[in-house]
Every structure is written in C-alpha cells, then in structure tokens.
Give the backbone structure.
Amino acid sequence: MLRRISALVLLVVILLWSSVGVWAQPGGGPVLVLEVDGVINPLTARYLDRSLQLAEQRGARLVVVMLDTPGGLDGSMREMVQSLLGAPVPTAVYVAPSGARAASAGMFITLAGDIAAMAPATNIGAASPVALGGEPGDTEIAKATSDAAALARSIAETRGRNADWAEQAVLESVSLTASEALDQGVIDIVADDLDALLRQIDGRTVTGAFGERELQIAGATVDRMPMNLGEQFIHVISNPNIAYILLSLGTLLLLAELAEPGLGLAGAGSVICFVIAFMALGSLPVNWAGIALLALGVALLVVGLLTDTEVVLGIGGLAAFVLGSLLLFSPFQVPSPAAPAVRVNPWLIGGVAAVIAAFTLIVLAAIVRASRLPPQSGAQRLVGLEGIALSDIDPSGQVRVDLETWSAVSVADGIQRGERVKVVGVSGVRLQVVPAETERVWEAAEET
C-alpha cells in the first residue's frame, strides 16, 4: 500500500511539473490585454506591475497596454516606464481606440513599450511643463523642462525611436497624429484595431529585459485583464469632477447633520464622502491652497449654521468654497510634464454653489419658522396650558400641569386648592399662574 501511495504521489508531481513547464514556456502562452483609460496615478502603476508579474507566471507571449490618457502624476508615470523597460515579457503600448490620446505622461509610457502603436485618429505628445496657477521663475521652468526632455530622449534612444522628436515634444509641446508619428519613427505600427495590431506584430523580433525574442502571435489566446472592482472604483473616483462632487456632497451632508443633530445617515455619509474624496485627491495634481479655501468655506458655513450669523458667514463660506473649487487643480508651482491639464467643470462648480446657497436659505427659513413656534421643551412649553392647584397658592404653592407637579406662584389673587389654573409664564423654575376663570376674563378684556 505504501509503495502504491508513493508511486501515485510521484506521478502527480511529474504531471504538475510537466504542466507548469508547458504553462511557462515562452511563446506558448496567451496575449494579455490591459486597459489604461484616464489619469495616470499610483493605481494604474500598480495595475501594470501586477499584470506584468502575472504575465510572466503565465508565460504570456505578449502584453498589450491599450492606452488613452491626458497625463498623470510624475511618480506614477516613471514607475510605469520602469516596469515597461524592465518587463519580463514583450510589451506593446497601443494608443486606442480612435479618438484616444497619449498626452503628457502617455507619451513617455508609449515610448517605453517594446512596440509602440497607435490607432488612426489618435495623437501623441504635448509634454511641455506649463504653470497652471502662477508665474514661476525661469529657473524652475528650465529645470523641469530639462529633466523631462532628458527622460524622453533616453527612453526613445533605449527603444531605438526618434529621440530628437521626443525631446522636442517636451521642449516645444508639439503633438503628432498616428500617421505622422509613424512617418517620423516615433511609433512602429498604425493599426485599426487590436486584431490588426496582433497580425502586424506577428513574426517581429524584439529585445528587452527578457532578451531577444521572436513574437509568435498567430493562434494565441487573447485574454483581457481589466482592473479588479477595487481598482476600477478608485480609478473612477480619480476623475477630478467626481472627486469634487464627493467633496461637495460631504459638505452638504455635514451641514444637514448639523442642522438636525444626532449622528445619523447624514453624518455617516459625510464621513464616507470625505474619506473617498481625499483618496481621489491623492491621485491628482492638487493645489493645497484650494483645499485650504474649501476647508475655510466649510468651517464658515458650519459656524454660521450653529450661530445667529447664518447669512453673513453663509455668504463668506460660499465665496471661499467657490474660490477653492476654481483653484483646486491649479498648482502654483511648475507641474511635471507628465501632469494632465485637469480642472473641475465650471458648470459643476456653479451647480454646487447654487445647491449650497439653496440649502443655506432653506435652513435659515426653518430657523426663522422655529423661532416663531411656542417652545417645545422645558417649562416654557407649559405656557398656555391649564392645570389643578394641589395646594393653596398665596402667593406660592404647587400645581399639576400636563401630568407633572410644579412649584407655582400666583400673579393674581390667591388660588385655593383644587381650583383650575392657567400657566401664563415661567420665573426660574416656578410657573406663573392665574385662576383659569380670571385668565378668560383677561383675554376677553384684551379682545375688547
């Protein structure tokens, strides 16, 4: 029995070893397709790195990165460039579909692929650093430009592409269409779609960190590797408009919670919105002066809501919030050439400002209406109610009003025990009462 079990275990090990060997054979695996759409951020860098590691484990013949980006964070762009230059399997960066772009950070990433390709009606370039919110000195601009130009040139030289144009794209912020990029040696292929790209790649020889390899693509299984749900969620909220909506929604929910105290859905929703919003802002080029103005605006709105200065502080808070919104994605320093020209839609800012203003007016109207209502708590709520004298009140004694026993003082003639009384005021912790019949007489006299 022991021999049989040992033989069975040995057979299983041999089969597993054989299957792993076949799985990891270069050129025998699938073609993996990634999709990078939107701002380049730490998430996209991790997505690419994770996918390249998985591609190596699966023995992928090729990894195709379908790219459409306005740019992104400098650190994330450099991480992706390093991942592509040191990729363990051949890579192709494909700017697609038609209408897509590889601007700013996208240009560096495209140049870093073993194969650079574009679909018709796409463009690449425009990687010059431009100050969005201030006037930095010539030295700062020169440093940023020189650093970016050197990086672009070194990537292009490593991949055997047009290094002069790559440098020019940074120095002069020029762009090329797909056909122009092909003619100038910036890219290798123009392909209508993914199938056309794979047909053109088949048989090409590329050299990278994996060595020299001839790409045998024909007949390969094409597996798409989208981001997982968590990555997709974070990538979606990295849209500047969505990040701004989350900030605004968090503010409105905070004001709603303070207007109706008690940690409920509004309070919990406000915390969630702010946490998610700051997760998104970490992936975007943010002007912290804009964040400070937004925080000041929220603080003024809150203070106005909790005090009797609702109108004055509400106007000031709204002005600070709008100004912070306009500056939110406009850094005063020279941004990286990888950074996209992101901004919040002005119509969205106007809409949020209108909603906050309307909310403030609604709360103010509610406060005014509440001030005109009779008190709803404490001894003041008993004013106008009738009760029974529990003892002689001359001038003080006890009464029962609204099923409660209170000390009372008579503001009219003496009141005898068992006589009905009416509360006409409150003095400290004692009720001011008069005989109920006397109160009716007084009311009649006032009407007359």
In short: Residues 300 and 317 are 5 Å apart (CA to CA). The domain at 22-230 is CATH 3.90.226.10 (2-enoyl-CoA Hydratase; Chain A, domain 1). Residues 12-27, 130-137 have pLDDT under 50 and may be disordered. DSSP finds 15 helices and 16 strands in the chain.
